[in-house]
Amino acid sequence: MRLLPPGKLVQCEVEKYDQRSVLEAMHNCIAHQDHTKSSRVSVVERPDRIEFTNTSTFYEGKPDDYALSGHVPMRYRNPTLVQAMTQLNMIDHLGYGIERMNRSQAERYLPLPDYDLSEPGLVKLTIYGSVVDESYTRMLMRDSELPFEDVLALDRVQKGIPIPDAALRRLRRKKLIEGRRPHVRVAASIAEITGTRASYVESRGKSEEYCQALVTDYLKKHGTTSRNELNETAD
């Protein structure tokens, strides 16, 4: 994929998917599968993402524990299989695979992986291969020193996923987000910096009862606008 960093004239190229992350995801599905169910591991490639589904539960801890602090599991569901796959260099025995997948996505300015544990007995992992919110992507390009816990929280914000109260307060103090739940969004100042003001307003939603409020709020935030910008907002 070709992305244009803010303030640059030349596009940079990034791989749509990190091969090591894709292999890590597939091998983890096999290693942590509940093989007593005699079920298949599903890998579906869509135009903008790859979805991995296996019959299992998240065996120890939560996905964010691994992404943020490099949590190391104390035990495995299939220890013999994990040991064999580790000896073949198929998986990371120390449990750093999830952390590495997350950081690889951030380093390539793409959305972070998502784990969906909502359906009992199934673990679904999504690895994104496209931009979800352009302002988020440009923000990563501008600020490579942003703490990873903030990157993770802002990734949830761009996807409309609720974040913990502590993360919400932290991002609000740093003026990275604004709005009230459930309409929390990347702050207007970030959108202004990245040149995506219309995209920022669009991200708030397009329900008929909200459209007029969106335009009014846009004018309050930025003072003036052009017909082209309003047209883009309404598209």
Describe the SSE topology.
Elements: E1 2-3, E2 12-13, H1 19-32, E3 42-46, E4 49-55, H2 63-69, H3 79-87, H4 97-107, E5 114-116, E6 122-128, H5 134-142, H6 148-158, H7 165-173, E7 177-178, E8 185-186, H8 188-194, H9 197-202, H10 208-222, H11 227-234
Antiparallel strand pairs: 1-2, 3-4, 4-6, 5-6, 7-8
Helix pairs in contact: 1-4, 2-4, 6-7
Task: Explain what this protein looks like in three dimensions.
The protein is built from 11 helices and 8 strands. By secondary structure, the chain is α+β, with helices and mostly antiparallel strands. The chain folds into 2 domains: 127 residues, 2-Layer Sandwich (Heat Shock Protein 90); 101 residues, no CATH class. The chain has a 4-stranded antiparallel sheet, covered by helices on one side. The protein has a two-stranded antiparallel sheet with strand order 1-2. A hairpin with a 5-residue loop joins β5 and β6. α1 packs antiparallel against α4, α2 packs across α4 and α6 crosses α7. The longest helix has 15 residues. About 6% of the residues have low confidence.
Quaternary organisation: single chain
CATH architecture of the largest domain: 2-Layer Sandwich
Helix content: 40-55%
SS strand fraction: 5-15%
Q: Quote the distance from N terminus to C terminus.
A: 24 Å
Task: Briefly summarize what is shown.
The protein is an alpha+beta fold. The chain is built from 11 helices and 8 strands. It has 2 domains: 2-128, Heat Shock Protein 90, CATH 3.30.565; 134-234, no CATH class.
